[in-house]
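User: structure tokens for this one?
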Amino acid sequence: MTFFPERPVSPPAVILIGPPGSGKSTVGPLLAALLGVDFAETDALIAQRSGKPVADVFIEDGEEAFRELERSAVAEVIGAHHGVVALGGGSVLSEATRKLLAGRPVVYLETGFPAVARRSGLAGPHPPIPGNPRGRLRQMLEERRAVYEDLAWLTVATDDLEPEQVAERIAGAIAGAEAGSDAPGRP
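Assistant:
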């Protein structure tokens, strides 16, 4: 099975998707360095354009306003950035974004609930926010998993790997695919 799509006429080199806490913002710059390209992330573009952190946009302006900014940022980086791109975890919820990602080199950083909870500070006995954030996180992961899997030409399970190892696996898979070898969708 060939997992690496034919290169689209337009950029980017690699697009990272996955839930919050999967390591996109950490792995992205490492992967970009290995590939000799630049790194961009849509959350940073949203923060730059809005003049405030993405969490503040989400809270102060509402989810729909945030998602509109996100759709715009995704379209911009997909069309213009030639390096590694990290998308926000919820960006794949947009049908327009899913269409933009079709046939592109999308890498899903698969991360299980325990790892996401640990990385986002929700693993302790007293989560930092009231209510049931762990339950909401678990539900979000389950709701998005199939979308991430459907979009990905490569899936890398990140739970037991250091960010450097994840970046190396992706770079190795790309090198193998570009050399014409068939490779599984999960290194």
